[in-house]
């Protein structure tokens, strides 16, 4: 899957033809800024919430029915 998004006609996973690329994803500075923001703010926040027992993990690589079952178990 080494093709650029603009080179493929549909999603190789779900076959959707509604593909688009954010215009700011074409600027490396914008991508780097988003990653820096994530590392600086999101990761520490997630770590604090995990330490407080407020984060639950669900395996999103399984069928949607299983994801839904796990979600229902967590939220009741």
Q: Please, could you describe this protein's structure?
A:
With 76 residues, this protein is mainly α. The protein has one domain. 47% of the residues lie in helices and 0% in strands. It is built from two helices and no strands. The longest helix has 24 residues. It is flat. It starts with 27 loop residues before the first helix and ends with a helix.
Pick out the low-confidence regions: none
Number of domains: 1
Question: How much helical structure, as a percent, in the residues?
Answer: 40-55%
Over all CA atoms, what is the radius of gyration? 17 Å
**N-to-C SSE series?**
HH
User: How would you sum up the global shape?
Assistant: flat
Q: Terminal Cα separation, in Å?
A: 39 Å
Tell me about the largest β-sheet: none
Mean pLDDT equals: 85
| Number of helical stretches of at least 4 residues | 2
Strand percentage: under 5%
| Alpha-beta content class | mainly alpha
| DSSP strand count | 0
Secondary-structure map with pairings?
Blueprint: H1 28-51, H2 64-75
């Amino acid at each position: 899957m080494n093709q650029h998004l603009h080179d493929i006609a549909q999603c190789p996973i779900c076959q959707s033809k509604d593909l688009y690329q954010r215009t700011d994803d074409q600027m490396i500075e914008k991508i780097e800024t988003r990653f820096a923001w994530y590392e600086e703010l999101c990761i520490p926040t997630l770590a604090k919430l995990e330490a407080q027992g407020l984060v639950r993990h669900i395996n999103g690589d399984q069928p949607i029915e299983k994801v839904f079952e796990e979600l229902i178990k967590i939220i009741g």
